[in-house]
Amino acid sequence: MREHDVSRLTAGELERTRRELAASLALAWPDSPIRAPIEAHITAIDAELAGRAVLRVCGCGLATDDDARMDGHLFESAGHQERDLSRYQELAVIVVDRP
Ligand SMILES: [Zn+2]
After folding, report:
1. Is pTM beyond 0.90 here?
2. For the chain, where are the alpha helices, taking DSSP H only?
3. Which of 9, 31, 39, 80 is buried deepest, with most CB atoms within 10 A?
4. Within a domain: 6
């Protein structure tokens, strides 16, 4: 599997790449072998975005700078998704994206 060097991308580039990957994933058949590398790339982007954000925010509104608290919250709350803050910082717009 190819390395995903996402550390040099700007927040905007990460966001755009993630959106393109999500679109590709939506078009792939459920059992398509293309899904795994796409999902791995998305995971790499999410990890990079999460690493850059100081404050972490859940879709439900919970905000914390405590990684353990957020991870625990996401683990305990089925369906909750962490928000990507970098796009807010860069675009100053709240974008609600649902798959
Ligand atoms: Zn939540």
Report:
1. no
2. 11-27, 35-52, 67-76, 85-91
3. 9
4. no
